[in-house]
């Protein structure tokens, strides 16, 4: 039966088998070899046609083909030396069944050096895939642009204007402001408005990564450079090549790493941990902090040379308590996201609810506002948030020793009053009455603070 199968292969079938780069042997169920292809001769340096008619059980009792004939089970990756060959081969062998009858077996093999070379290529391909996967996992997506930044107060519009101007350059930017003011939003908008918009945007929170790991996070490492380094890792500066790296909470960076960061900013070059090759990158840096860097410099906690390198263009993002008039606009922009989170449509806030928001100090800024709105959207009945739906903490995060200037406090109170009573003449009269001042004094204050 098996011999008839071989005959049925025909001229075309033999041509296909003979063109295979792998050596091929066919044997019947008794172990008699009935076919050997051309690659058998090339790999084993032995005339394959002389093998036909020989019994594999006798000529190669420990080979993969013999094992299949004896067990009826496939064999994978068996290394052995064929009779008369000068090099070992790596074989895969399989049983052949016709009409549920075991009729013989077939073996495919390559010389070990060639097989090992293929395995090395496969391992490298897997490593390339892993590195690509690491890149895709680490590279973030800058989703915000200047159209999504909401604010109409003068101090905020000035910050946006500067950000738009600097976005058209490759200058290093330092974003300053309290936690929750939207520094990452500004960083993404700058990136998306730049010529690097189609390149990577990589976000690194310097405060979230332990100091001992931050260097490898920035610059990567070579395989075997330290215990546990089982493979090569690409650092964030290399991932952000041709794009933008956003270094959030830069004020919390270790002094030793500050020196290495300064070197990269000056030369655009670095080495991976354990590596000898110098890697050059073209990466735009945007840094952000909520700390007083000047004070850290006086305490020797921040390098003054790095400060000057980062502080090429500084943008101060005002806190929400100085943007009370922007609360309705910011809230309206947040509501679609809130609606998705709570699983229902929230159309807006009633006027009393907006007034309640305007009377809060917002120590948590936009992040706190978003949290308050999400809670209100979860608790409210209907599609509009009412004042009773809003739960505000009594200034929990404002430190008791925190002191603001009288001018800042005065400006903040005027902004809240106008937000509550409205910018119309009638609203200004009510605001002046609530503040305990005359309407003329209120107008003088508005001119002094350049409020709309």
Task: Describe it.
The chain is of the alpha/beta class. It folds into four domains: 2-115, Beta-Lactamase; 140-316, P-loop containing nucleotide triphosphate hydrolases (Rossmann fold, 3-Layer(aba) Sandwich), CATH 3.40.50; 322-394, Orthogonal Bundle (Helicase, Ruva Protein, domain 3), CATH 1.10.8.60; 405-452, Arc Repressor Mutant, subunit A. 45% of the residues lie in helices and 16% in strands. The strands form five sheets. Strands 2-1-5-4-3 form a five-stranded antiparallel β-sheet, with helices on both faces. α14 (351-358) runs antiparallel to α16 (406-421) and α16 crosses α17 (425-435). The longest helix is centred in the N-terminal third of the chain and has 27 residues, at 112-138. The relative contact order is 0.07. Mean pLDDT is 82; it is low at 131-137 and 395-401. GO terms for molecular function: ATP binding; sequence-specific DNA binding.
Strand content: 15-25%
CA-based shape: elongated
Computed over alpha carbons, the radius of gyration is 36 Å
- Characterize the largest beta sheet: strand count, sense, and whether it forms a barrel: 5 strands, antiparallel
GO biological process, one term: regulation of DNA-templated transcription
Domain Sigma-54 factor interaction: 149-378
Pfam family, one: AAA_lid_14
InterPro entries: AAA+_ATPase, AAA_lid_NorR, Homeodomain-like_sf, HTH_Fis, P-loop_NTPase, PAS-like_dom_sf, PAS_fold, Sigma_54_int
């Amino acid at each position: 039966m098996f011999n008839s199968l071989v005959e049925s292969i025909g001229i075309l079938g033999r041509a296909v088998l003979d063109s295979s780069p792998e050596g091929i042997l066919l044997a019947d169920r008794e172990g008699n070899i009935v076919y050997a292809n051309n690659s058998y001769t090339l790999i084993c340096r032995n005339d394959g046609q002389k093998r036909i008619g020989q019994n594999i059980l006798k000529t190669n009792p420990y080979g993969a083909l013999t094992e299949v004939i004896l067990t009826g089970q496939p064999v994978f990756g068996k290394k052995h030396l064929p009779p008369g060959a000068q090099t070992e081969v790596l074989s895969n062998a399989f049983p052949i069944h016709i009409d549920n009858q075991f009729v013989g077996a077939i073996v495919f093999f390559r010389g070990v050096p060639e097989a090992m070379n293929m395995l090395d290529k496969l391992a490298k391909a897997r490593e390339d895939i892993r590195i690509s996967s690491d890149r895709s996992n680490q590279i973030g997506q800058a989703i915000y642009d200047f159209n999504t930044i909401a604010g109409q107060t003068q101090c905020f519009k000035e910050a946006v204007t500067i950000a738009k101007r600097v976005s058209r350059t490759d200058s290093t930017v330092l974003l300053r402001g309290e936690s929750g003011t939207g520094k990452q939003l500004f960083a993404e908008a700058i990136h998306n408005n730049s010529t690097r918009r189609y390149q990577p945007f990589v976000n690194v929170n310097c405060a979230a990564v332990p100091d001992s790991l931050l260097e490898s996070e920035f610059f990567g490492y070579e395989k075997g450079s330290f215990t546990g380094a089982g493979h090569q890792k690409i650092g964030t500066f290399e991932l952000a090549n041709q794009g933008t790296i956003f270094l959030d909470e830069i004020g919390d960076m270790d002094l030793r790493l500050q020196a290495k960061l300064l070197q990269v900013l000056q030369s655009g070059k670095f080495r991976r941990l354990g590596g000898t090759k110098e890697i050059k990158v073209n990466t735009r840096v945007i840094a952000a902090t909520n700390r007083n860097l000047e004070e850290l410099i006086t305490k020797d906690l921040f390098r003054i040379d790095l400060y000057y390198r980062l502080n090429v263009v500084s943008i101060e993002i005002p806190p929400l308590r100085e943007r009370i008039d922007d609360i309705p606009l910011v809230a309206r922009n947040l509501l679609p996201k809130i609606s998705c989170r709570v699983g229902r449509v929230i159309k807006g806030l009633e006027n009393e609810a907006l007034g309640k928001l305007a009377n809060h100090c917002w120590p948590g800024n936009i992040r706190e506002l978003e949290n308050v709105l999400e809670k209100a959207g979860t608790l409210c009945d209907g599609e509009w948030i009412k004042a009773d739906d809003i739960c505000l903490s009594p200034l929990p995060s404002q430190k008791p020793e925190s002191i603001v200037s009288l001018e800042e406090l005065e400006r903040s109170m005027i902004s809240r009053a106008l937000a509550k009573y409205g910018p119309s003449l009638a609203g200004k009269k009510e605001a002046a009455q609530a503040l305990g001042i005359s309407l003329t004094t209120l107008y003088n204050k508005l001119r002094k603070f350049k409020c709309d």
